[in-house]
Amino acid sequence: MNDELRNLYQEVIVDHGRKPRNFRKIDGATGIAEGFNPLCGDQLTLYVKLADGVIEDIAFQGAGCAISKASASLMTMALKGKKQEEALALFGRVHDMLTEGPNGEVKPEEVGKLAVLSGVWEFPMRVKCATLAWHTLRSALEASGAQISTE
Ligand code: ZN
Predict the structure, then answer these.
(1) Phi, psi of 33 (to 5 degrees)
(2) pTM of this prediction?
(3) CA of 53 to the centre of ligand 1 (A)
(4) Which of 13, 22, 78, 80 has the highest CB neighbour count under 10 A?
(5) For residue 24, how far is the Cα from the chain centroid?
(6) pLDDT tens, residue by residue, 48-65
(7) Which domains does the chain have, with CATH numbers?
(8) In angstroms, how far is the first alpha carbon of the chain from the final one?
C-alpha cells in the first residue's frame, strides 16, 4: 500500500470514528446483539431489521476506538439492502482481509469501501476492534431466527 492510499484510508477511518453513520436504535428490530472487545474496551449494540432474508435496516450504538466505530459504521453502510447470505459472505472476505492481509486470497477491491480497513492486519491487537461489529452482526442475525451457516 502506498503512503497516499494509506493516508486516505486513515482519513476515512478517523471520519467514520468521529461521525459514525447509522448510529442509532432501530424500533422494531428483528435482531439485537451486544458485542464487547475486552482487549480494547470496545462495546456496541447492533440492531438488524430483517424482512424476507433481506437486511432492511441496520444500525448500531456504542463506544470504542476509532477502528471499532469506523468498522461498524462502514459495515452498516455496506449491508443495508443486502441479503443475509451476502452479508455473511462479505464478513468472510473482510475477515480474511483483516487476518491474512496482502498474503491472503481476498483483494481489497472485493470488499468495497471496507478496503479502508485493509491496513489493520498489520496490527494484530486491532484486528478484534475491526471484526467486533461483524461478530455481533452474526449474533444479531441468529437472534432474528436466520439460518447461519458456518461454512
Ligand atoms: Zn478498539
Answers:
(1) -140, 150
(2) 0.93
(3) 30
(4) 13
(5) 15
(6) 999 999 999 999 999 999
(7) 3-143 (3.90.1010.10)
(8) 30
